[in-house]
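[agent] plan:
  1. take the single chain provided in the ticket
  2. run structure prediction with default settings
  3. attach structure tokens to the ticket
  4. add a short note for the reviewer (M.T.)
[agent] executing step 1
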Amino acid sequence: MRRRVGFFLSNFSAGGAERQYFNLIRGIDKETFDIYVGLIQYRDNCPSPALLESYRSLQGVHVQILNAGIRQIFLLSGKSQDMCG
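[agent] step 2 finished; step 3 output follows
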């Protein structure tokens, strides 16, 4: 049984820390872990289409946009609202 691991990111600027975060997630063994990435959106802070595509291109990684204004976030069940149309 694979272990579930969740990562959350709320700053969508393309800095060094964000690249390290992406590389960390990319390098995790997908045979051992189920990986979930929550991109936390608040107000007008939406992930760019390029950032979304980067994370969604990673095989074995589940990506959700999470609205920080909603008290109940259901990341692992896949029930989230994509407010960044």
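[agent] step 4 note for reviewer: The chain has one domain: 3-67.
[agent] ticket updated
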